[in-house]
Amino acid sequence: MDSIVTSVIEQFKTRSAMGEKKYGVNMDRDDLSYKEWITHMKEELMDAILYLEKLEKIYGEKAPNTQGDTE
Questions:
Q1: Is 67 left (phi over 0), alpha (psi -120 to 50) or beta?
Q2: Closest listed residue to residue 16, CA positions, set 32, 7, 8, 27
């Protein structure tokens, strides 16, 4: 396994443990309906868009490590 995959797996493990400690449940929970799972995902994706917008405001339209790349 490469270092990137290993890093992501460790981050998932850490996030899972933090979520279980904070909310008292994990992804094996069965108390949410299909619609509630969809709502959770929509909220997470909306947060992701906000983070991307913030980064664009900080760094401009191009990522800070690009060097004249075109779309």
A1: beta
A2: 27
Q: Residue 4 and residue 8: Cα distance in Å, rounded?
A: 6
Residue 5, in any domain of the structure: no
How many independent structural domains does the chain possess? 1
The pLDDT tens digits of the residues spanning 20-68 come to 999 999 999 999 999 999 999 999 999 999 999 999 999 986 666 666 5
The pair of structure tokens assigned to 20 is 């279980």
- Tell me the whole-structure pTM to 2 decimals: 0.68
The residues near 62 (Cβ < 8 Å, ≥ 6 apart) are 69
Within a domain: 50: yes
